[in-house]
Amino acid sequence: MEDVLEVEHRPSDMQRPEVCLDEISKPLLADTCERVPMKPGWPARFADEDEHKETCSLLLICEPATFED
After folding, report:
1. What angle do CA 60, 65, 66 make, to 5 degrees?
2. N or C: which terminal CB in the chain sees fewer CB atoms within 10 Å?
């Protein structure tokens, strides 16, 4: 943990920027039935069922030192 804290206190260096990486997996879903078309005065209606298709990975890489407070 001390190594991480030491990195946070380094001065900015354009040759070696400090970056953060975050990754999350999300399932890709498909509707299992057709949606009922909307009518005036009625909200859209659909079944609360999904078919699991695949999983994808979302990656976020940013340089937090460049953001203004």
Report:
1. 85
2. C
